[in-house]
Amino acid sequence: MQAHKVRFPGSQVELRLLFEADEIDKIYAKVFQELSERGGIRGFRPGKAPPKIIRRNYDEEIIQQMTWMELIQEYYEDIIEEKGLEPVEDPVFPDLEGLRLAENTPLVFTISLTVRPIPEIRQYKGIHIFKPSTEVTEEDIDDELAKLQRQAGEEVKPDRDDVREGDLVTATVTLTPAGADEALSEGDEHFEIGSGRYTPPIDTEMIGKKIGDTVVVEHTYPEDHDDPELAGKQVVFSATIIGILELKLPEINDEFAADQGDFANLDDLKATLHEQVATGLRESADTEAENNALTAISANTTVDLPESLVAGAASRSLAQFEDNLAREKLTIEAFAEIAQMSEDSIKANETARAAASLKLSLIIEEIRRTEEIEIDDEDFDAAVAEFAGGIGAGEDFVRRSLAVQEGFEEQLRERALRDKTIRFILDNCEIEEVPRDEYEKIKEREREKLLELAAAGNEAEAQPDEAGE
Question: Per-residue pLDDT averaged across 70-92, rounded?
Fold first, then answer.
């Protein structure tokens, strides 16, 4: 038997197989022997009826179908293993009616496969990445105190009519494409003036304005904005002020600290806030480092994703999204209207996310295989402890669940394996800690570099890769 492998774009493979006549005859012989051993042929004991007698007792089509199934069963798995292929979907076999399957006759046919893509990772060790500083500053503590102060504040109507920083303003906001007459959306929104939460910063434009005044701000969305309908578009925001409240803030002192919980004084509260901020900064920095490492490796990788895999993953993701909306008593149509997005845009976003997630999963798995990373009992115990902590349950409860929930242990082991592989990746990165006030600018600069790198890697078009062995 000769097997010729040809690769096509989309991780498609054709196996072109040639069987010599004697190989086909051996398969026919096995089928005749199996039918003979079934017995029931008059004048012959089981296993003794010759092929010409069997042909008289069985329809030729049945014999041919059995021979075809026996041929596939005999050779298919060995061919797949020999060629190093991992099918991700059922193979497509030719229609038996179109084949010349007969004794004393060679047979040629083609099997079509969708196989597991093999990522071409150009680099995953020694990658230089950045993460924000974890140093806690006095400003951090002051910010936390200010949050607590605002939470304890009392909303009151001011004895003035102009908007000032820190006010709580209600405004009717419309969003209109530049040059258009019809607004995309209109509704009342609440603003905390000077909070820095809004893009564009329409809240700061309200400072000094009065009830009934309207502020107008033009804004151009970036080309990579989440909503394709707004990406790269210029729009006009219009906000008419309809209400102003100010926040009467308590003084920050020992009495204020005591009101926040079991704190002896203000210094005691500050110490607790310092510990909380430090923990949050470490977790945030670790998350940023992980995301930056995986993003950099992904940009250094090309992978030929099968359309069917992406479509399947996107469909599952969209179904989960719709289930989540249903719990909130929302439909995808209603969400699209609230988010000012079309349903097609939502589906396109899910497809893009599915493709990115599949690519990343394949990358992590390929690194795991290359480095032969495995988990031991200690790794699994750590995964159990982490999962228990995440759901607020005891480890004993999780271990009992492992015994009764089908597939749970396998999922937890896969999670532990993924986490260990990511730790390996981070251990082999060059991580530079930078000041937090500079991090976002550095991150954006690196993102642009990676986009260029990814685009350059994707320029090479997939070519058929013939490998006859």
Answer: 94
